Amino acid sequence: MDGQIIISHCGGKSAEVDDSNERALIDDQFKDDNPVRCMLNNWQYKQPIVMIMGSKCPTSPTKMPHRYQVLDWFMITHAWTEPDPFSGHVRFKYRFEKVGLQESSWWAPQGMPGKNEEYLPAVAIEERECATCNKKSPRIYEEGFLCIHSTCQQFWKLDGQSAAHNLHYTQQFLRARHPVPPNYVVPSPLAPSIDGLLLDRNAELGNAHRDFWKGIVCPACGNCCARTSWKGWVCTCGYSREVGFHVTYTASQLREPHRDRYVGAPIPAINNRYNIPVKVETNGATTIVRYDLGPAVGTVIHVQNSDELNKKLGMDELLQRYQDPELPFKRGQVTTMCGTSYTRNFALNCGAAYHYVVDQDTVKMEDAPVVVQNVLSMLNEQVGKLCPGHRDFNEVLSLAYLEDMRMNYHTDDEVGLGPVVASLSLGAPARMGFRFRAGWKQNKLCHFPGLDVDDVKSGIPQFSVTLNHGDLLIMDGAGIQRYWEHSLTRVEGLFRIAATGRYIDPDTHEAASRPFGPTPAQRMAITSPKSETTVPTGEAQSTYMEDFFTHLHSIPKKEKSRRKSAVPTASATS
Ligand SMILES: O=C(O)CCC(=O)C(=O)O
Ligand SMILES: [Fe+2]
Predict the structure, then answer these.
(1) Predicted confidence (pLDDT) per residue in 361-410, tens digit
(2) pLDDT tens, 60-92?
(3) Which DSSP state fits 62?
(4) Same fold yes or no, 5-188+544-573 and 267-512
(5) Left (φ > 0), alpha (ψ -120 to 50) or beta: where does 242 sit?
(6) Quick count: other Cβ atoms within 10 Å of Cβ 538?
(7) Domain 267-512 belongs to what architecture?
(8) What are the DSSP E strand ranges found in 26-141?
(9) Which residues line ligand 1 (CB under 6 A)?
């Protein structure tokens, strides 16, 4: 790797060799493998590609300042196959060349190609035909011409013998620079302009559009900056940009335009295989639907009110007050195997501390925004009527969903939680799915005689409900969290609030809460100074590409059919 050329392999299927830090392929890579196909498409159709480098990259020419950094736009000039030095499996390799050769590369040290250096005149990479397969190969290594076609008997052989693995790239291969083909366009700047984003977007969307909650590149320091604050983007360098809401959404604006608000008894969306008993009770203004999941599990209760009753109960006002830009909503931090990330939705926890996979602050109920205090009273009153013996909630987790936000399947089964969990929905409609909790085999014994374990593994929802503005969804029974999972698969609109009440026993819950991940490291600036270099033009592109494509290492037929039949099992266990 230098400031303009990167030679690398990718395409997956590698694993650590024993306990060493070395990785090796555990299977051949094939042209039909998705990651390989993507790369070959990029090469064939000349699609520019952004290179991102991790701080642990062993061939980096300088010390990388961040865990991950964006290098630049590159194009693939050559692709070929080689045996993996450790396992002998076939692996695809690629030569990437920076598109903007005239720009100085921030990651290159002084004196390296790409750094303030007038570049050498372009040199061509020689190509030769293999006497056995009659296909062309580029000259990549000093040690001699190697046939790069893995289906050829002479693949990776020098004078009839398997070539060593510690070969040296030719100077031509390293020094060649290719003209940027006509019509070759970089699809976007590496750092999209935040002003363009904010000004061009339709203000009627009220800034709940996805563009307003995804990350930006900080215009002050170049750092990638997630939107975690309700008010807008706040970068660790001190830069901040408020977003606010241009529009205060009303319930009728957020309603699904193609479906009328509830009229009459709802039709529950049920995969009716297990005949979940459903009871519907209505008095005109309120409809209560009860999904009976069995005596050892519990009941899901869905309460829907007419528009008039919702108004009377103050639901529209609650929705409006939840759009106050001063509310301390935040996107919570989640630590995953791949690093630190954020929940999709904004959260505000009030009352007892509530720890789940997310690291979040809690506001005491006496200091909580009035809207949250009102919701708590309303939840306690309504749930008290429907679930006899209900212990008053002492916590409300308010979640704000902007466009395209959702919540994946999970259970609210943290230690110290009471058996009743109830959430009030405000704003845009959303679909909540319920499925069997994977891996909980006792399901079989517990209820639904004849439960097919494949239905547990499949992850398919057994029933789902549409939560409209003003609806109350009560999960009554600890067994629901034990044997079932729920998710918010789809929010049909720009803005939705879910305010969920729970009883949390502070002592047992605190004692059992999970450790949380580290805060994000301080980030440093990346700048990319410009310098004058010459860009080669007019040099021919490699011509062996066609040969390579017609002679590619593809999955054998037998293997292909085996993979196809394996698909359902693989997805079922995921
Ligand atoms: O958005 C919702 O209605 C569901 C929220 C939820 O499941 C939770 O807070 O645990
Ligand atoms: Fe939940």
Answers:
(1) 899 999 999 999 999 999 999 999 999 889 999 999 999 999 889 998 98
(2) 999 998 889 999 999 999 999 999 888 889 999
(3) S
(4) no
(5) beta
(6) 6
(7) Sandwich (2.60)
(8) 49-54, 68-83, 90-98, 127-129, 136-138
(9) 397, 399, 407, 412, 423, 425, 432, 486, 488, 498, 500
**Which DSSP symbol is given to 61?**
S
In 3-state terms the chain splits into helix, strand, coil percentages (rounded to 5) of 20, 30, 50
> CA-CA distance, 150 to 17, in Å (whole number)?
24
DSSP character string of 333-398: EEEETTEEEEEEEEEEEEES---SSEE--EE-GGGS-HHHHHHHHHHHHHHHHHSTTPPPP-EEEE
Question: CA 406 → CA 360, 399, 401, distances in Å?
Answer: 18, 10, 7
Give distance in angstroms: CA of 410 to centre of ligand 2. Answer: 6
> Is the pLDDT higher at 513 or at 215?
215
Separation of alpha carbons 494 and 392, rounded Å:
32
Reduce the secondary structure of 143-201 to three states and give it as a string: CECCECCCCCCCECEECCEECCCCCCECHHHHHCCCCCCCCCCCCCCCCCCHHHHHHHC
Q: What residue type is 286 in one-letter code? A: T
Please, are residues 282 and 300 in contact by the beta-carbon 8 Å criterion?
no
Residue 249 Cα to ligand 1 midpoint, Å, equals 21
Give the list of residues 6+ apart from residue 363 with CB closer than 8 angstroms, or none: 328, 348, 349, 350, 369, 372
Give the helix/strand (H/E) hosting 504. Answer: strand 495-504
Is the pLDDT score of 467 beyond 50? yes
Residue type at 205 in one-letter notation: L
Model pLDDT for residues 359-369, shown as the tens digit of each residue = 788 999 999 99
Q: Which tokens hold the place of 327? A: 């509310």
Q: How far apart are CA 397 and CA 352, in angstroms?
A: 10
**Strand runs (DSSP E) across 392-450, as ranges?**
395-402, 407-410, 417-427, 430-436
Q: How close is the Cα of 498 to the center of ligand 1, in Å?
A: 6
Instruction: List the strands of the sheet with 484-491, edge to edge.
Output: 269-270, 463-467, 430-436, 484-491, 407-410
Measuring CA to CA, which residue among 415, 401, 574, 560 is closest to residue 488?
401
Residue nearest to atom 5 of ligand 1 (CA): 498
Sorted by where each begins, the domain ranges of the chain are: 5-188+544-573, 194-242, 267-512
Pocket test for ligand 1, best of 331, 357, 395, 423 (most atoms within 8 A of CB): 423
Helices (DSSP H) in 246-300: which residue ranges?
251-254
Q: What is the CATH number of domain 5-188+544-573?
A: 2.30.280
Q: Is 486 labeled as ligand-binding?
A: yes
